[in-house]
Amino acid sequence: MNHAGRRNSGLMATLALLTATAAGCAGNGNGQEAAAAPVAAESTPAPDPQALNQITIDNFAFKPAELTVKAGTKVTWVNHDDVPHTATSAVKPRVFDSGTLDTDDKFSHVLNQPGTYEYFCAVHPHMKGRIVVK
Asked: 107 lies in which domain range?
């Protein structure tokens, strides 16, 4: 038998031993199979309610561009761009205006009245978003 053949037969013997050991562990010693141990279900953490009402500013865009929330919800904008931006209400008088948000700065505003709130970035007016409050 060559060297590779001895290595393969050794692997096969190890695999057979592991299989027999595993089969023996499945029983309870009196010839009956033991019930399988319950496997814990992988739990998905509940979404952060704050994150659900968050708008990120990234790559010169508001994401999501449109957000629907209930009246009384606090909405937070976070600037992830490396340049300043604003979140400024499009109507006058302004319903909200974040002022200049530098990288990783946040701005929050509670929207109490149902309606549609259009907003934009005062530094980059082509950036637009909308919040629908129900």
From this structure: 49-133
